[in-house]
Fold this protein.
Amino acid sequence: MLKAVEKKKAYEDIVEQIRGLIEEGKLKSGDHLPSERELTETFRVSRTTVREAIRTLESMKLVKSRHGDGTYILASNEEALVQPLAAALFSGKDDIIDIFFVRKIIEPYIARLAAENASPEEIEEMEKILREQAGLIERGENTVNADSAFHSVMARTAKNRVMERLLLAIVDLLRRTREEYLVDDKRAKKSLQGHWKVLESIRSRDCAVAQKSMLRHLEDIEGILFGKKKKRGGGLNA
């Protein structure tokens, strides 16, 4: 049954304003929000309304309140876009294999677009990330952040904001699985090798090879993670 819509609540407007500032990059990770009293005066609402807005932003993992120290921005502008998108697109009950399969459809084509559109500066940025990733492996350190950074920059070079946001949402959802995969030194090295192959094809502007290299990279990871359960449709033809 349809029901009468409720008028917008004041705290929702506060949430939208703060989230908008994060998305625009005007509020960055680590920035300190004004005090509760200052927010109350700025928005001309009660402290109860401000607190409800802060609780909502915390549930979205955009801010963090520290007792006696105020409220800080947690998310970057990309994360502010990605987290609500991930929540809207995927359910916690979704099979991780199915989410990975969607990634296999999207990311090889992003690699293809990257080979077509990446600037020399962006290619240099990806190479720098891979060198950092190699250093982390040598020191026995966790590489998941460097791994994520490579995929994030590559997605940006595709010059398609919708595909970029979708991929970042999927990668974020798969973060725990990737952490488990990359904790093994041999797997981390294999992942790095896959990244280098993708980057070399992007550097050479070979769109077809970039697409195939990314698909092969993802299939290698998928085979280790899921084994025989990985089958979900066919591959991609470049």
Notes: The chain has eleven helices and two strands. The chain has a mean pLDDT of 82.
